Amino acid sequence: MAPGYSPDNLFKLDAKRKVRFMVLVIFVVAISAAFFVYPAVWDKAAQKINIFSPFRVPQFIKVPFKLGLDLAGGTRLIYIADVSGIAGQDVGSAMSGLRDVIERRVNLFGVSEPIVEVENAVDERRLIVELAGVKDIASAISLIGETPFLEFKESIEETETQKILNEQKAGNKEFLAADPYFKPTNLSGRYIKSAKVTFDQNTYQPEVSVQFDDEGAKIFEELTTKNVGKQLGIYLDGLPISAPVVREPISGGSAVISGKFTPSEAKKLAERLNAGALPVPIKLISQDSVGASLGQDSLDKSIFAGIIGFLVVSLFMIIYYRFPGIVAVIALLIYTALVLSLFKLIPVTLTLAGVAGFILSIGMAVDANILIFERIKEEVRFGKNLGLAINDGFSRAWPSIRDSNISTLITTAVLYYLTASVVKGFALTLGIGVIVSMFSAIFITRSLLKLFPLYYLEKWPRLI
């Protein structure tokens, strides 16, 4: 065996190589993430290289950040839903269906990352629609507002019809808005599975044939069974378009809507019903616009605030912790690149609140490093050598880092699932930042510290 050789030396050599390999992987991933976040630097270098290089360097993949309404500009629409004709226990289901339909229709229109939420007030139900970066706002509003509200009504008794007509003639306000011929049923456009244009075999007039889903087919069969020999009113957006007489119970969930349509009108109605008919009627009550220039100004100020915050935190770490502070700043740069690349990959819709959550997570990432460095200092004061102090400092600081971050993650989860969209953006970016910060503090910072020869630090103890 060679002089000075021992299994311990071999283990140390392998450990050093392992650390160097891990640091290399960290930097490769971090640099790739940085170019992914800001590919312009890569592209400029590639253009210069391609001038004289025989091998063409491709441009870096480009994935834009998804910006929310307050950063990209756009429109916020507030609708009020009329749920007066729906039983109390079914209102929540109807509003959920309304949200899904509007979101699906806006997506078909091409709106990027629409936010559609239900807001429950004491005496009314509202639908909040946020359209970020929309160019043709008027068409989007028209698309939502013109979504057909289809409902099926059954005829009422002649005595009841006469009573309503008499009350209306007498000017009774309670009956002025009442329909004297038909009353609402549980069957509406929310149960439509598909719709297509057909033509009447006798008159050759265009019609719209609809197919209900399983629940709608069951309701339709019960409705036709109950009203054999009577008229069944078909209303579109509150107006009667057809009132066929039910000859026999209809099973299978198929119905035909006729109303003197032109072919283009029938086609348009079928398309809208396929995209989703509204389960309840809605009315636009508010429209707020955010200009693109105002959104860009907010974004610029947010980025500036983030840079200032990063520089101040970095300056504090370097002055107070010296060499470990420099390591923490490098780890913080890597952390920033990783988090921003995750925002693009997931993707996360960034709002002003989301940017604030990200900036806050930078401070929390530094907080984990502070706990580790203070613990290392304590271990050194106890007389341990630097290598052992670093190992013990990380292992003993971990429980505090873990518990504090888990409590923060619990809070972000509660905020995300139980609050409105603005707070959700804050909670999501903060939660992602906290998860990555644990990895950064324990894995990246530790690997960077172990990469530096410890005997230099032991020779100049003022560096730590």
UniProtKB/TrEMBL annotation:
One of its GO terms (cellular component) is plasma membrane. GO terms for biological process: intracellular protein transmembrane transport; protein targeting; protein transport by the Sec complex. It holds the Pfam family SecDF_P1_head. The chain crosses the membrane at residues 21-42, 303-321, 326-346, 352-373, 426-449. Signal peptide: none annotated. Its main location: membrane. It is found in: Cell membrane. Residues 98-154 form the Protein translocase subunit SecDF P1 domain. Residues 282-450 form the Protein export membrane protein SecD/SecF C-terminal domain. It comes from the Bacteria. Residues 185-280 form the SecDF P1 head subdomain domain. One of its GO terms (molecular function) is protein-transporting ATPase activity. It is a multi-pass membrane protein. Keywords: Cell membrane, Membrane, Protein transport, Translocation, Transmembrane, Transmembrane helix, Transport. Coiled coil: none annotated. Gene3D superfamilies: 3.30.1360.200, 3.30.70.3400, Multidrug efflux transporter AcrB transmembrane domain. Part of the Sec protein translocase complex. Interacts with the SecYEG preprotein conducting channel. SecDF uses the proton motive force (PMF) to complete protein translocation after the ATP-dependent function of SecA. Belongs to the SecD/SecF family. SecD subfamily. NCBIfam families: 2A0604s01, secD. Forms a complex with SecF. Part of the essential Sec protein translocation apparatus which comprises SecA, SecYEG and auxiliary proteins SecDF. Other proteins may also be involved. This is Protein translocase subunit SecD. The gene is secD.
